[in-house]
From TrEMBL:
SUPFAM superfamilies: FMN-dependent nitroreductase-like. This is Nitroreductase. Residues 8-191 form the Nitroreductase domain. InterPro entries: Nitroreductase (IPR029479), Nitroreductase-like (IPR000415), Nitroreductase/BluB (IPR050627). It comes from Mycolicibacterium chubuense (strain NBB4) (Mycobacterium chubuense). The keyword Oxidoreductase applies. Keywords: Flavoprotein, FMN, Oxidoreductase. One of its GO terms (molecular function) is oxidoreductase activity.
């Protein structure tokens, strides 16, 4: 078990899992018990999670891949002034998978793995009641990061995926999620494939002074 600082530093997005190595349910439950300690506005506890494993996960993946084959996902578009960041991350992530910048077919296949939950045996769907707003989404985010860290501390890998929210009707139909809940994102959970170089990628962060100001006088 890692301590908190180790877990923060060790956590990274896993983009290929060991398909046949399930995560014991009690490890996931332990991580969730810690995650629900997250703060939330008025203690609303706005997180709603649905998990799919086994045949339910396989049916979900099949339905998502079928849709992704023909329809572009409805994921939020980044404003122009931020779009270069997605391109830079794409170059880094797909580069680490050995995919050349202009190899559009290899890239397409790598992107499609999103809807396979990167082969993770456990697929999570993160939802929030549709009447709640931005401030409550902050609470879901705090829950999620705590969950990710608790998984990391237990040697379990994860990847948060907005791509899953790109086909909300497919996810709703497969997992019986009502319109009352907005689907915010997915989360792939499993044991990382150690031989996949992209799983060891250390995505750089801005220096603090790009995002933080201290005002003293
Ligand atoms: C809300 C959210 C949505 C994300 N959606 C995706 C996604 O759809 N596909 C993907 O491969 N990574 C996704 N990521 C992972 C980010 O790309 C990743 O967290 C970021 O590049 C930093 O890398 P790291 O997690 O390895 O530190 C998402 C992360 C967050 C927090």
């Amino acid at each position: 078990m890692y301590d908190l600082e180790d877990a923060i530093v060790m956590r990274r997005s896993t983009r290929l899992f060991l398909r046949d190595k399930p995560v014991p349910r009690d490890l996931v439950t332990q991580a969730l018990e810690l995650a629900i300690r997250a703060p939330s506005n008025s203690n609303v506890q706005p997180w709603q999670m649905v998990f799919a494993s086994g045949a339910a996960r396989d049916r979900l993946v099949e339905a998502l891949l079928e849709r992704a084959d023909t329809v572009a996902p409805a994921v939020p578009v980044l404003p122009d002034s931020f779009a270069h960041l997605r391109r830079e991350l794409g170059a880094l992530v797909y580069g680490s998978m050995g995919i050349a910048r202009h190899d559009t077919e290899a890239r397409r296949l790598a992107v499609l793995r999103n809807w396979e939950f990167f082969r993770a045996p456990l697929a999570g769907i993160v939802c929030m009641h549709r009447d709640l707003g931005h401030v409550d989404a902050l609470g879901v985010g705090m829950f999620l990061q705590t969950f990710l860290l608790a998984l990391t501390a237990r040697g379990v890998g994860s990847c948060v995926q907005v791509s899953i929210a790109g086909y909300p009707d497919v996810v709703r139909a497969q997992l019986d999620i009502s319109d009352e809940h907005r689907i915010l994102c997915g989360i792939a959970i499993g044991y990382p494939d150690p031989d996949f170089p992209a799983n060891h990628l250390d995505v750089p962060r801005n220096p603090l002074n790009r995002n933080v100001r201290f005002v003293d006088d």
